[in-house]
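Record pair follows.
FIRST:
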Amino acid sequence: MDASVTLLGPDGQPAKGRQFTAANGIELSVGVPPGRRLTSARLRLAAADGSVQTVQPALQSDAGDKTPDGNATVTLRWATADWGEERAIVGLTVVADGPPPRNGLRARLFNRGSWLPVMPLDTLPTGSQQRFPPQSASRLNAEMLVEGKVGDTATGVLVPGPLAIKQFSIHLSQQPCGLTAAIADEAPFFTPDGPLPLTPTEVSGLVRALNRYRNDHPQASSLPLRIRCAGQQAFIVSDFEAELEALPPPPTPPGPPVGPPDAPRPGELAWLPEGAASTGLARLCDGRHTAAVVLAPVDSGELSSVALRLRALGPRNRGQLSIHLANGAHPQDTALLSMDFELVTTEPAAAAPVWLTARLPTPQPLAGRTWWLVCRMSEGAVLWYADPDRPPRVTDSRHQSAGGPWLPLEAPGDSPWLQLRVGVLDTPAA
């Protein structure tokens, strides 16, 4: 069974479903097996408490240090309330000594260095509690509004002016504000807008951040996830789930060798007589030169293997043996089958000729058709040794230079042939 991904709290216990405060930052641990990466990761956080607290902060205003106490009034043109930390403000109650809606106020919130209007409306009536969506702020500024007049006639339009205030209250939610998520000491990759809601919110960018850290720390078994909030309001880890990338498939056990095997099939019969193997004459096969043997049809049985008497001229020599049906005096362009081979030697200068056996992947019936065995090199070079007296089943031996015409061998003897062994099976192979 594949390993799982865990999210643990600072105490090493599972974090899912638990509450935390993070005014000074807390570190959760994402447990990931060393060397593994994630295909997905989902973390959802929510405010643990949505209750509302009503405070009556000290005011800075044009009236000095006078603050409404619910009984005596204070005449104000503007006032600023400062509650000392970023909090979720959800409402405001300003009671004026005058009948609404003849007066009101225009409110601004201060958050992270900017003054912004209260949303969705910044002009509010006085007299009753005014609620609005939770908004992060540490200060509030109110400009008092009174009904304007033209002469002695009221216009119904609120304009800035002095207002006698009895009560000035701020309503703050317990939702965390200023939440950030980061990996170790890196810059935060997640910073939500506004207070953390009561409904779970997904921490976006988590899988990308974790995998980036994994790239730099491939052997780490615990990836540090640091969460910070502006105050002591609690949040809850609502949900966490993650999936690891699939492990690479196990190594495939070694299969059959890429080159041809060096042994014929059991039960093969020799189709050609053994070459003399005494001559020192040979035909070069390299990147420019190619050699071939032309053979009579295999009328009895199926072709199973071939063997060439070769000598390596370099430390690593790679080539291909291909069988072609005859097309007049030439081989057909498309090979019936091809077999790669390799000859390796540590001392090319002292290398002796060897018989290179190539066993056909599948025995081939070649009755009624003349066929060619062609040797081409892709790397290095070999010598293919020749005999002077050609057996009847060998029609000819040819060589080719740089893709030119196929030319007959000129030596040794009157009917030279490139030394070759051919094995056939009397009955088809199982």
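SECOND:
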Amino acid sequence: MGITADTPSYHSGEVDKCNNIFSYRVWPIFMLSFCRLFFLSIFERAFQNYIYFYQDVSEGMLGIISSAPAIAYIFGPILGHLITKKLGIRNSIIISAFGTPILVGAQMIYFEPVYLIFIRVLSGLLIGIFWPNCYNLLSRWQSVSSDAKSNKNFRQFNFSWNLGFISGLLVGYFWAFALDEYFAMIFAFVISFSLPLFSLFLKKESELNHMDIDFENKNDDPKRNSIIVHQNKQNSNNKMIAYPILFSWIILLIYAASKSVFRFSIPVFLKTSGSPSYYSYLIQLAMQVGQLGGLTWSNSMKIYSRKISVYVSLIMILFSSITIVLVQDILYISIISASIGLFIGLIQGTSLKIMIDYGAAENTKKYSTTNEVLKGIGFGLTPIAAGFIAEINIYGVFIFLIVLGISVLIPLLYLSRNIKIKIL
């Protein structure tokens, strides 16, 4: 991820009253986040169900096709960084927004696996331009906002994309139930054209840079400088830098791996048990509602409480995986998968907040870029591994998740050993 100018390092208590100086426009990013996840949650679930239930691809090939965008996303943020340095934030997001409907439509006309993998790799590269620049703007706004305004932006951003995901799964279920998966894909394709529309309302790069310059000039005033110094020392927005950044990266991988395993296994269990494919929408819908609850809850927690929430969530994911392997009942698996979202959301919320605070505190985009690369690794490699494991035994994917979770527990305890109650 990249921008043409670094974000300013000032935090003034009077920021939100100075709208003429800090006039940033947030709603286009929130609408883009909502619309992208709305159509994507419909399309991805319908697409994977269609090729698995009706095109009869194997579990291994399903894993490869499903993970192709995430694999490309490992390199997408790096490509996005180079493009953004040349074109700026707004133009980069516009390119991603206009290219997305084209690639969505291309996946619906031909279902040869090699062709689908190629198209979905291109789609992953475009996503690598979009999300890092969204996080970049969040860090940029945080640097010129009060604590209250910064938390509000972060909360609304999380709510917008989660609401899009949840509502998309609900709408997708009714489309798939009433008609079929292919009609659900067509509906998602039509909705994807909202992205180019909303992207045109983003602030121009010259306006963003002018905001930074005006702010720096305004802070030549000695009285305002004294306010800024006090704000930096007593009321910093970036409290989560008390955690090592490695803590954020490890739990990000756990978040991605856990969600990938549960999401991938749902259609496999349904097909094996002879259940209709559209039930997968309802299970994933419940999972996403829980994830939104976890994200919202995490955002209201104090520093030490976030640490506890991560450990409790990781233990619950391990416990749920163990019981799935032992019980092996489709109804029980569906209930556990639907409820696991809360713990996934708590882990994601902590990881995301640490990353954004580091980016704002150090005026750099390297943390958001690294964050998205690691997310691509987690979401990209896990379905591939899960696909080949599932061809042997579907319950093996949960054994894989158990081994992964236990292996990171001790490193996480060591990294967070200095996060004490006294910093609450």
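COMMENT: DSSP finds 17 helices and no strands in the chain.
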